[in-house]
Design goal:
seven-stranded mixed sheet; alpha+beta
C-alpha cells in the first residue's frame, strides 16, 4: 500500500515538472512564412536558456530553464537565481513552428558568427558543429568560421537544441541571430556575401597598389603612403570580420590568429583613416593631436601580444567606445577646413561624414546595441572615390602648373646665371675675410684653452690639498682622541688613587702610558711625514743603497714588537743590487709594512721576509699568516677615500694612514707596491725598485 502511494506521488510530481517545463518552453512561430520560397529569414526570437548545462535532447522536458534569452549573447548578468558569467557553457532550446508548405523540405541554418563554439541538434539528432562546444576550457575549441547546418523538416514543428560554450571571448553565445531558409537560398545568401566582400577586396587592392606605386615614385608623398596602408588594412578588415572571407582563402586558421587579426585590422583602419585626415589638415589641429592618437592606438596594438584572448576582446570593447572622441579630432579639422572653403576639406568632409556615420553604426552593431548589419564597407567606397578625385585633381593642377612654370623657369635660369657671377665674386671676398677671422679665432681659442687647462690644474691641486686636509683632521679626530683619552684616564687615576697605589700598580700604569705614548708617537710621525709630502714640504734625497741595509735599520724595533706577541720573523736575504731611493722614506715604508704584518698576525705565528734581485730590479716581500684582508675592500685599500679600518689581533688600533704612506713614498721613489691576500689565511706585500748597478759591492 505504501509503495503504491509513493508511485502515485512520484507520478504527480513528474507530471507537474513536465507541465511546468512545457509551459515555459519557447517557440519560434514561422507558420506565416514559407521558408522554402527562396528567402532567408532571421531567427531573432526568444530561447529557453540553461546555464552551465549541456542537456541531451531527451533531457530537456525534465528541466526547467534558467531563463528566457531575448538575444543570442550571454554576458555577466543574473537570470532568476542563476548568476551568468561571460565564460562558461549553456544550452539553448526552442521549438520551430513551420508553415505546412515547408513540411518535408530541405532547410538550413546559417551560423555567421558564434561566441565561440556551438553544437546543433535537430529533432534529437546531431546535425552539425561550429568549433567544438564543451563543458571545460581544455576540450572546447573556438572559431568564428561561418557554417551551414542542413536538416529535413518531417513535421510542422522542429525541435532545436544548441550546446554553446565560451572560454575565449568577452561574451558568449550564438553571436548574431541565426539565418534560416532553404538549403539553396541559405548557401546562395552566404555566397553572395562572400562575392561582395571579394569584390571589395579587389577594389581595395587596386587602390592600395596604385597609391603604393605613387609613394615609391614620390618618396615624400605622405598621403599616398597613408592611403596605401589604409586600403591594405581594409583588405585585412574585410577578410577577418563580418563574413570572414579569410576561411575561403585560408584553411584551419587558429582562433588566436582570428581574433588578433580582427582587432589589428580595426585598430589600423581607424588609426590610419584618422591620421590621414589629420595630416591633410594638420594646420587646423592642436600640436599634440597626432601624438595623442598614435600613443593611444599603440597601447591598444600592444595589447594584441597578450596571451589571453578574453582580455584582448575586453580591451577592444573600450577601443570601440574610444572611437567617438577620436573621430571628433580629425572631423573638427575637416570642419575648419570647410569653413575656410578648402576644396579638399569639402570632399573629405562629405566622404568622411558618411564614413563616420557608418563607423558609428557598425560600432553600435558590434556592441549589440542595434541589430542591422555592417554598412562601413559600402560607405568606404564613397570615401575611396573622393580620395581618388583629390589625387586626380592634384595631378591635373600639377600638370597645368608645370606648363606655366617652364616659361618662368627659363627666365629664372637667366636671372640665376647673373646672380651666380655676383655671388662668386662675393664668395671670394668672403673666403678671405673668413680665413682672417678664423686665424684670429684660433689664436683666441688657444689662449682660452691654456687658461682653462691652468685653471683645471689649479682646481685639481686645490682639491688634492683639501682631501689631504680632510684626511689629516679625520685621522687626528679619530685616532689621536683614543690614546690621548687613555693617557688622561691613567693620569686621573694616579691623581685619585696615588696614596693607594703599590709599586706594581705604578709599573703597570706607566707601562700602559708608555705603550700609549708609542702609539701616539708612531701616529704623529706618520701624520707629519704624510702631510709634509702632500704639502710639498719635503723632497726625496736619493742615494744609492741596498734594500737589505734599510731593512736592518728597521728590524730591531720590529723584533721587539714581534717578541711581545711571540711572533717569529724569518729572513731570506739573497744578494740584492743597488737601488737609488731616499733611505728615510723607504724606512718608513718597510716599518709600516712590518708593523702591519705583526699587528695582523696571530700570536705564535710566523712572518717571512724575502729580499731578492732579478736581472733589472730588487724585490722585497713580507708574508704573514694572519687574518688577511676582506676581498670586498682590497681594490681600494691604498686609496685616500677608503674608510676601511681593522684592529690588530691584539686589539691594536689602525688609522689607515700607514698603507697610504707606503703607496705615496714607494711611488715617489720610483718603485711599485702591490699585495696578495686571502681572508683568514694571511697577506703578502711586495715592493720592487729598479736597480742602478750590477756590482754586488756597496
Amino acid at each position: 500500500m505504501n509503495s503504491l502511494k509513493i508511485s502515485v506521488l512520484l507520478a504527480l510530481m513528474l507530471g507537474f515538472v513536465v507541465a511546468e517545463t512545457e509551459r515555459n518552453r519557447s517557440s519560434i512561430d514561422m507558420r506565416n512564412t514559407v521558408l522554402s520560397d527562396g528567402e532567408v529569414y532571421e531567427l531573432n526570437s526568444n530561447w529557453d536558456f540553461y546555464w552551465n548545462q549541456h542537456l541531451e535532447p531527451t533531457d530537456v522536458g525534465f528541466f526547467i530553464p534558467d531563463g528566457i534569452v531575448e538575444s543570442q549573447y550571454w554576458i555577466e548578468s543574473k537570470s532568476g537565481n542563476v548568476s551568468i558569467e561571460a565564460l562558461g557553457y549553456a544550452t539553448y532550446h526552442a521549438t520551430l513552428l513551420l508553415n505546412p508548405d515547408d513540411i518535408g523540405k530541405d532547410l538550413a541554418l546559417l551560423i555567421r558568427e558564434n561566441n565561440t563554439a556551438s553544437r546543433y541538434y535537430i529533432n534529437g539528432e546531431l546535425v552539425g558543429e561550429v568549433g567544438h562546444a564543451a563543458s571545460n576550457p581544455v576540450s572546447s575549441q573556438a572559431t568564428w568560421e561561418p557554417a551551414i547546418i542542413t536538416f529535413n523538416s518531417s513535421s510542422d514543428s522542429v525541435d532545436i537544441l544548441i550546446h554553446a560554450s565560451n572560454y575565449e571571448f568577452r561574451e558568449g553565445g550564438l553571436g548574431r541571430p541565426l539565418k534560416i531558409g532553404s538549403q539553396k537560398s541559405v548557401q546562395k545568401f552566404l555566397d553572395r556575401k562572400h562575392h561582395r566582400d571579394m569584390l571589395f577586396i579587389g577594389i581595395y587592392l587596386a587602390m592600395a597598389l596604385y597609391h603604393l606605386i605613387i609613394s615609391l615614385l614620390r618618396r615624400n608623398d605622405v598621403p599616398a603612403i597613408l592611403l596605401a596602408i589604409l586600403y591594405f588594412s581594409w583588405i585585412l578588415r574585410t577578410l577577418f570580420s563580418a563574413n570572414f572571407v579569410c576561411f575561403q582563402v585560408f584553411s584551419n586558421i587558429p582562433w588566436d590568429v582570428q581574433i588578433r587579426m580582427e582587432y589589428l585590422s580595426l585598430y589600423v583602419v581607424i588609426f590610419t583613416t584618422s591620421f590621414y585626415v589629420m595630416h591633410m589638415f594638420k594646420r587646423y589641429l592642436f600640436t599634440y593631436a597626432r601624438r595623442l592618437l598614435t600613443g593611444v592606438t599603440a597601447f591598444f596594438l600592444l595589447t594584441l601580444i597578450l596571451p589571453d584572448t578574453v582580455t584582448i576582446s575586453r580591451i577592444a570593447a573600450y577601443y570601440l567606445y574610444f572611437l567617438v572622441p577620436v573621430s571628433l579630432i580629425p572631423f573638427s579639422a575637416v570642419i575648419r577646413a570647410v569653413m575656410d572653403r578648402n576644396r579638399k576639406g569639402q570632399i573629405i568632409f562629405l566622404g568622411g561624414l558618411v564614413l563616420v556615420i557608418a563607423v558609428g553604426h557598425d560600432t553600435l552593431y558590434t556592441l549589440d546595441i542595434i541589430s542591422t548589419g555592417f554598412i562601413a564597407p559600402y560607405t568606404f567606397i564613397v570615401f575611396i572615390v573622393g580620395q581618388a578625385f583629390i589625387v586626380a585633381k592634384d595631378y591635373a593642377d600639377a600638370f597645368s602648373a608645370l606648363a606655366t612654370s617652364e616659361v618662368e623657369l627659363k627666365h629664372e635660369i637667366d636671372l640665376r646665371a647673373n646672380a651666380e657671377e655676383e655671388l662668386l665674386a662675393y664668395q671670394n671676398t668672403l673666403e678671405k675675410t673668413v680665413a682672417l677671422r678664423t686665424t684670429e679665432l684660433d689664436n683666441t681659442n688657444q689662449k682660452l684653452l691654456e687658461e682653462i687647462t691652468q685653471k683645471e690644474e689649479n682646481e685639481a691641486e686645490l682639491q688634492r690639498l683639501n682631501d689631504a686636509k680632510d684626511k689629516f683632521f679625520s685621522i687626528i679626530a679619530h685616532d689621536l682622541r683614543g690614546p690621548i683619552g687613555s693617557q688622561m684616564t691613567y693620569i686621573e687615576l694616579i691623581n685619585q688613587e696615588f696614596s693607594g697605589f703599590t709599586l706594581e700598580d705604578f709599573k703597570e700604569t706607566f707601562k700602559n702610558l708608555g705603550s700609549t705614548n708609542k702609539k701616539i708617537y708612531a701616529l704623529l710621525e706618520n701624520l707629519l711625514s704624510w702631510s709634509r709630502l702632500q704639502l710639498g714640504v719635503i723632497e726625496p734625497e736619493f742615494q744609492e743603497v741596498r734594500l737589505s741595509k734599510i731593512y736592518e735599520n728597521v728590524l730591531p724595533v720590529a723584533q721587539q714588537q714581534a717578541i711581545a706577541k711571540n711572533i717569529t720573523i724569518h729572513l731570506s736575504n739573497n744578494e740584492d743590487s743597488l737601488i737609488k731611493v731616499d733611505p728615510s722614506m723607504i724606512e718608513v715604508v718597510i716599518r709600516n709594512l712590518l708593523n702591519n704584518a705583526i699587528k695582523f698576525s696571530n700570536p705564535g705565528g710566523d712572518i717571512h721576509i724575502i729580499i731578492d734581485s732579478t736581472s733589472n730590479s730588487t724585490q722585497f716581500s713580507i708574508k704573514d699568516e694572519g687574518i688577511g684582508i676582506p676581498a670586498e675592500v682590497q681594490a681600494g685599500l691604498f686609496d685616500l677615500a677608503s674608510k676601511f679600518r681593522q684592529d690588530g689581533t691584539a686589539g691594536e688600533a689602525s688609522s689607515g694612514l700607514g698603507l697610504l704612506l707606503v703607496k705615496e713614498f714607494t711611488h715617489t721613489n720610483g718603485g711599485k707596491v702591490w699585495f696578495e691576500s686571502i681572508e683568514d689565511q694571511g697577506s703578502t706585500f711586495f715592493l720592487e725598485f729598479p736597480m742602478v748597478s750590477l756590482n754586488p759591492e756597496g
